[in-house]
């Protein structure tokens, strides 16, 4: 069974940090790019960051502005999102996404809640 399991969400004060993890299992994800999206209540799901299969290229949304860093483990099945200087507007459910890009189907995780208090 293919799974993307997110962890690391929680409640933090503005200016604080969180580190999200995404553990992918159930198939070979070594050729997948993996990234993060987020969705606040009543809003669309937005791209946050993604990292390529080799772990040597990362893309970020403009609103990240150097605050977030995405990285990938040597096994390529685990991806982390280090979030620093969090703001209340970062409050959302954060979803892990595996992009097959012709290698296979795309997958989504169930999401992890991040709440930043002011």
Q: What would you note in describing this structure?
A:
This protein is mainly β and 118 residues long. It is built from no helices and 11 strands. The strands form 2 sheets. Strands 2, 4, 5, 6, 9, 10 and 11 form a 7-stranded mixed beta sheet that branches. A 4-stranded antiparallel beta sheet has the order 1-3-8-7, with no helix packed on it. A hairpin with a 5-residue loop joins strand 4 and strand 5. The radius of gyration is 14 Å and the shape is globular. The mean pLDDT is 95.
Q: In this structure, how is the largest beta sheet organized?
A: 7 strands, mixed
Count of extended strands: 11
Q: Treating each run of at least 4 consecutive H or I residues as one helix, how many helices?
A: 0
Give the oligomeric state of the chains in this entry, treating copies of one chain as homo and distinct chains as hetero.
single chain
Q: What is the average of the pLDDT values?
A: 95
Order of H and E elements: EEEEEEEEEEE
What structural category characterises the helix and strand content?
A: mainly beta
| Share in β-strands | over 45%
- Low-confidence runs of at least 5 consecutive residues: none
Outline: globular
> Residue share in helices?
under 10%
Kindly report how far apart the N and C termini lie.
40 Å
**Rg computed from alpha carbons, rounded to a whole number of angstroms:** 14 Å
What's the short story on this structure?
The protein is mainly β and 118 residues long.
